[in-house]
Amino acid sequence: MAARAAAHDSDGSFPAEDFAGLRAAGLLGFLVPTRLGGMGRSFADYAALAYELGRGNGATALILNMHAAITGVLALTPDEIAEELGAPEEWFPRRDEILRSAAEGKLYAVAMSERGTGARLSAMSSRYFPEDGGYRVKGSKSFVSGSGHADGYLVAAKSAAGEVSQFLVPAGEGVTVHPTWDAMGMRATGSNDVDFDVRVPASALLGGIEGLALLATEVSPHWMVASYAAVYVGVARAAVDAAVAHATERNLRGLANVRSRVGRADAAVSAAYATVMEAARRVDAGDPESPRWVWRAKLLAGDTAAQVAASMLEAAGASAIRRGSDLERLYRDARCGALQPATSDVCADWLGVAALGGDPYREGSGPRW
Hints:
The chain is of the alpha+beta class. It is built from 13 helices and seven strands. A four-stranded antiparallel sheet has the order 2-3-7-6, with no helix packed on it. A three-stranded mixed sheet has the order 1-4-5, with helices on one face. The chain is globular and about 70 Å long.
């Protein structure tokens, strides 16, 4: 993946060879239960995987993350919790069908954000309404990573009553991808705009429950807030590795300022990784403190990636800013971490409200969901 990353960044192409390898290794079914043909791994296992993939190509890792967010929610939400939320009996065979398809190699993408509202689900303009025993889902989405290559899309839309629900919409008729993605960093994610105007059966409603989307951000915040935190820590580690290689090649290892920058970067990346893994461990254990750790993980991952990549670029010197250098690309990729929802400002506000004894889901000035 690392050897191909520069070429995909240069032309913004989808990393097809990377995904051929991921499929061959069974990693699209990483979180799928073994009874359905998957690997049956935990959220902590996924965080470790995302970190390693981020070291290779952050764009590939982010596309896989969106797939993992869907399969992870479905696979790792206990049946009893789904039942308490109101999932009907017929939902569970449908859930298993989706997961089995992922283990067989189907790729899913997330279509949540919209132009003008970002990831604020409560402010979205996409709509759904009953039609012929199913639903009509209609709207325009942005930042849809893997668009045009996914087999299905998890689309968030709002009902006339204001309920925000999610639908698994298959690729094909009624799904139109617009090649709009031309960004500073993460250029190979193919995060294009996508229009939806499609009728789906009732079974496409995620969980079989209307109005589940906003509740899911509280029940499973790790998938909405910080599932890709480990990816950006991996990108930060790749920047340190690239700076070390650059310093070695150009005989800069004897310079004290280079050594100190690399040392501080190494410590910062290690601390961010430890926080991400602690959050993941607490999620798997069902620790009531896990939401706070999830928000900490996202804040530290985004800020650390940006700061470390910038420092490594300075340590390497002017030669590293040339287009096509590994450090130049990693700097641009790393800078995206703090901007992806929940942004660093939103994370810090959430944590500040919580530390001051408030309810971070109900209070605070930062727009969340």
